[in-house]
Amino acid sequence: MTFSLNKKSKEPMSEINVTPFVDVMLVLLIVFMVTAPLLTVGVQVDLPESSADSLPEEQEPLTLTINSKGEIFIQETKVDYDNVIIKILAVSKNRTDTRIYVRGDKTINYGRVLEVMGMLSGSGFTKVALISEPYKER
């Protein structure tokens, strides 16, 4: 805020200079636009492509990933095949209505992905879905 005396009325005149505020906000906007895509962390897998629409999200889903070696991860934590249901139940606090996204590498056997999905469905989880990359025309 700058104060100056008005020559005619001898009263202080105040002005707010918003230019620095706008500059800072634009810089923050650019920083967040650049960093937002980098915030999605997880196990690196090469997902297959699909032209299906994405699902709406009400709450944070659990992500179960099967990489190209057949290793299973819940979020970013590696889990043995025999302990998958126990860990999922612990993380979801025994709520079988928790949304679980299964990410399977496109080079892995499709039967392995279905085996894991069947195990989840057989344990009572009703919201199990596959994740894929959006289809890119070549």
Task: Write a structural description.
The model has no long low-confidence stretch (mean pLDDT 78). This protein is an alpha/beta fold and 138 residues long. The protein has helices at 19-35, 84-91, 110-122; strands spanning 2-5, 12-15, 49-50, 62-66, 72-74, 77-79, 100-104, 128-130, 133-134. The longest helix has 17 residues, at 19-35. Helices cover 28% and strands 22% of the residues. It folds into 2 domains: 2-39, no CATH class; 49-134, Nucleotidyltransferase, domain 5, CATH 3.30.420. The radius of gyration is 26 Å and the shape is elongated. It is built from 3 helices and 9 strands.
List the helices and strands and how they pair.
Layout: E1 2-5, E2 12-15, H1 19-35, E3 49-50, E4 62-66, E5 72-74, E6 77-79, H2 84-91, E7 100-104, H3 110-122, E8 128-130, E9 133-134
Parallel strand pairs: 3-9, 4-7, 7-8
Antiparallel strand pairs: 1-2, 4-5, 5-6
Order of helices and strands: EEHEEEEHEHEE
Q: Give the C-alpha Rg.
A: 26 Å
Count all strands and give the number.
9
The portion of residues assigned to helices is: 25-40%
Count of helical regions: 3
Strand order of the largest sheet: 6-5-4-7-8
Structural class: alpha/beta
What form results from the Cα inertia axes? elongated
What count of domains describes the coordinates? 2
Distance between the termini: 56 Å
CATH first level of the largest domain: Alpha Beta
CATH topology of the largest domain: Nucleotidyltransferase, domain 5
Major sheet size, sense and barrel closure: 5 strands, mixed
Give start-end ranges of low-pLDDT stretches.
none
CATH architecture of the largest domain: 2-Layer Sandwich
User: What is the arithmetic mean of pLDDT?
Assistant: 78
What's the assembly state of these chains? single chain
- Which strand-content bin applies to the residues? 15-25%
